[in-house]
Amino acid sequence: MEVATHGQVLTRFGFALSDPTRSQILLALRQAPAYPADLAEGIGVSRQSLSNHLACLRGCGLVVAVPQGRRVRYELSDSHLAHALTELLDVVLAVDPEACTASGAGKDCC
């Protein structure tokens, strides 16, 4: 298994959080491990969409699939991720909407 650098870890984490569905999955798994059907229902997405997002999160190294008989349960790959997500939720952002349009990022900027 290849060990990621700090920069690679942050890039993977940022990519995962850049999508609202993946963010919701991570927040749900922060609370407790879950089965895909339950995650899809709780988040309000199709099972196919959820499956694609879970594959992405597995590829980023943020979640793991744990076989349980005929079912597979998903959980965060490291307990530090739950703490990191909790800390991120406590961050107070100083948003400057003018900075996005000035930089040329356009309306898609946060």
TrEMBL record:
Domain HTH arsR-type: start-end pairs: 3-96
Pfam families referenced in this protein's UniProt entry, alphabetically = HTH_5
InterPro entries, alphabetized: ArsR-like_HTH, HTH_ArsR_DNA-bd_dom, HTH_Metal-responsive_Reg, WH-like_DNA-bd_sf, WH_DNA-bd_sf
Coiled-coil zones: none
Q: Which SMART domains match?
A: HTH_ARSR
Q: Which PANTHER family match?
A: HTH-TYPE TRANSCRIPTIONAL REGULATOR CMTR, TRANSCRIPTIONAL REGULATOR-RELATED
Protein name in the entry: Winged helix-turn-helix domain-containing protein
